[in-house]
Amino acid sequence: MQKNYVLGFPRIGEKRELKKVLEKYWSKQVDFSEVKYVAQQLKKRHWNYQKKANVDFISSNDFSYYDNMLDTTILLGAIPKRFENLKDEELYFAMARGNDNCVAMEMTKWFNTNYHYIVPEISKDTTFKLNSKKVIEEYKEAKELGIKTKINLIGAITYLGLSNNLDNSDKFSHINNVVEVYKELLSQISELEDDGEIVVQFDEPLFVKDLDSKVLSLIKRVYDVLANVSSNIKVVVSTYFEHSNEASKILVNTPIWALGLDFIHGSKNIEALEFIKNSNKVLIAGVIDGRNIWKSNFEEKVELLEEISKVINKDNIIVSTSSSLLHVPFTLSYEEKLDTEIKSWLAFATEKLKELSLISKQFFGLNLTLEESSSIKRNIEENKQRKISTKIHNIKIQKELEDLKVFQRVDKFEDRIKVQREFFKYDFLTTTTIGSFPQTPQIRENRKSYKANLISKDTYEEEIKKYIDDCISFQDEIGLDVLVHGEPERNDMVEYFGEMLDGFAFTQNAWVQSYGSRCVKPPLIYGDINRENPMTVEWIKYAQSKTKKIVKGMLTGPVTILNWSFVRDDKPRSQVAQQIALAISKEVDDLQNAGIKMIQVDEAAFKEGYPLRIENIKTYEQWAVDNFKLSISPAKIDTQIHTHMCYSEFNDIIKTIEAMDADVISIETARSGNRLLKIFKEVGYKQEVGPGIYDIHSPRVPSVKEMVNQIEELLEVLPKEQLWINPDCGLKTRKWPEVKQSLKNMVEAVQIVKKTNY
């Protein structure tokens, strides 16, 4: 019998159907019943895709309207008190996005991916109770379609481990209460089948991190209980993104049925095979990459599985994706414009289902159809062709990097900042924004029409200039100190630059969910990277010509471009980042030579690229910092370099941030209060800081009073001369009315603070 397993499947829809209906619902164009209908159709379609691809273990409860961690918070009844008067979908989306009366829950990155989850809020007073029928209802939905699913749940230890501890109490003190809720749920699940077994997958990705003995001691305690609730439930514990050897060694001594391990991003999991063998547990072997888009090399995959089977009996092996396919695009079917050779190297979610079926058939020695045999031969040829393709190698850039002599700025920060303050003539609590302004339907349509050759270049540029004119005028009018051009020419902060660099490819429909309805379309880095011409200079120069105030040049940093792209797997990431850094350094030099002396090089994704294991962090930090410093190395003493970081816990990397040698860093802090900022004071951080004082991921407009309070709290942490005032992040996804009011309130709040205190 063929044995294969998919940890989870994308949910946004192959044409972003979920995104579109959610945004219609939020703008009151449709009722929630329409959202439910679209969701039902998507689930049905996704289950059938997997069934048609001969997947043996298909998930239910991997679907979500917004986020699975948020779903788990609802499931466990751990709802913060500020939302307690809300119900159903109003409650659900208020927790995710906030409303007029309630600030949204914090959102942060899911391990080292670009997916965001809603962070649970835990205190000593938090209570837990079974509070949702979603798990049961979704299983029944699939069953009515003739599809028996496994049930996906977030594990209790991961759930608590990733939660925010609001009062410094021990969040793991709740473990028994959470386990009791799961016991009750498992009892209900056990009744879903009269005479059959049900597989329940507990996702415990926290187990791939360096855990202390206290957390490790919970593992046996939890799974001794959960794996014994019912004889007709088979419990799987799945980990991914790294190895989980310490946890695996404990889990094999519990009554769980199977252990899911990632052999792509956690190669050290091979060390766990010996103690899995001795336990006779089933191994769910993740050998199909759930995080990248390159076609599997069938020969290498079968070879890896054969190596595993030297230790684990084949009867106890199930072939799997390394993680949920949530992190890759849906299908290649709509990629009609992609270079055919590059397309032949790719596999998205539905293509990975076919890969999974073929590799498992090969490994288990099952009969292949003529079409399947042909697919395997084609896979071998396409992988060989990729290695020798002339599209991949650029000798000129390889030589330029070999000959590189300058890798960082020559002037020290203490000298630079004196010159810069005199040059720019700003005092304190300087106001600015992070860069982007709302991408209106008109701007999107203008860009789309130009790309489709429906309008001339002149017509396209006239529309862009009009947007910039309005954007600069508005910022001048409300009294912002440092302006931005609004980025109307940019579809995305990574894609825009990639389109002007050699070595990048772009898709039409390769969308990946980032959070809620927010989707991104990452570029594909397939070859050596080169910049031939300036990418931003003309637009920034135009914006600067429209005002006497300073306009920032806006660039995306090399580490963020790397971390927000699908990166080639035939070259170390550090070398790919260096090629990008060289390209950005040329743009920095061109900008300053064009008179743009304040330049922001965003590293929004710097932290999310961090290895999950401490042993690997130093190496990553070294090349990531070195490449950022290379990207800004041409900056002269009077050129001020800004950077921006998203959703970062800075406690453990503050010295690394300091080593990046930017003059000003802006950070997201609105949802997390000042706890992220305090570390800057504790370590004596010298550079200037712009903590976000309002949350741009929520449509809510904060009042002037709220912002005054926020600024005064910031001043308790850092001196006024060190502080800039700005929103949390770029304003691209927001609407103009809320943006205008929020920024007006922000400027007014700064003026009040200055008058009151200084």
Helix percentage range: 40-55%
Discrete helix count: 27
Strand order of the largest sheet: 1-12-11-10-9-8-6-2
Q: Total domains, how many?
A: 2
Estimate the global geometry from the Cα principal axes: globular
Category from helices, strands and their pairing: alpha/beta
Distance from N terminus to C terminus (CA atoms, Å) equals: 77 Å
CATH architecture of the largest domain: Alpha-Beta Barrel
Uncertain segments of ≥5 residues (pLDDT<50)? none
Strand content: 5-15%
Description:
The strands form 8 sheets. Strands 1-12-11-10-9-8-6-2 form an 8-stranded parallel beta sheet. The model has no long low-confidence stretch (mean pLDDT 94). It starts with a strand and ends with a helix. With 758 residues, it is α/β, with parallel strands linked by helices. The longest helix has 22 residues, at 457-478. The protein folds into 2 domains: 4-388, TIM Barrel (Alpha-Beta Barrel); 412-757, TIM Barrel (Alpha-Beta Barrel).
What's this entry about, in short?
Helices cover 42% and strands 13% of the residues. The chain contains 27 helices and 26 strands.
Which key terms come to mind for this protein?
8-stranded parallel β-sheet, 27 helices, TIM Barrel, 5-stranded parallel β-sheet, 2 domains, 13% strand, 758 residues, 42% helix, alpha/beta, globular
